[in-house]
Design brief:
alpha/beta; 8 strands
Length: 134
């Protein structure tokens, strides 16, 4: 059986995808809605696309307006992440995920951050609070 990690549901949904880890916080307004690529030059994922990925990041950054609008623009163009795993989910980030029906979790269990890496495939069942490495 594939290894499972427990987590806490913020916004429900079930998706499969490739994990993409960021050590930097994310401002969704600094992601190109046409390509899903991060355009913030100082960001560790600069030039990489988050589209369709299970995005793992420490926190959201920027004002509530730019965070919500950035997430909305990505959703409308289909360049949004498949799901989000966040260490520190602020109110704006959590509310935006719920409104946009974007699966989001936090409080990952065990050695998730030590055992999984960029490119690993996973299934996130946010409704039941389980991420499975596949």
């Amino acid at each position: 059986m594939d290894k499972q990690y427990k987590c806490h549901k913020i916004s429900g949904g079930k998706v499969k995808g490739e994990l993409l880890f960021s050590k930097d916080g994310l401002c969704f307004y600094l992601i190109d809605p046409k390509t899903g690529k991060i355009i913030e030059k100082e960001h560790c994922l600069y030039g990489q696309s988050i589209a369709g990925k299970i995005l793992v990041f420490p926190y959201g950054k920027g004002s509530s307006v730019v965070q919500a609008d950035g997430m909305y623009q990505l959703k409308m163009t289909g360049m949004n992440p498949a799901a989000m795993i966040v260490v520190n989910a602020d109110t704006t980030l959590a509310a935006s995920a719920i409104i946009l029906k974007a699966p989001m979790v936090n409080k990952m269990s065990g050695d998730f951050y030590k055992e999984l890496h960029n490119g690993d495939m996973a299934e996130l069942d946010a409704d039941n609070g389980i991420l499975t490495r596949i």
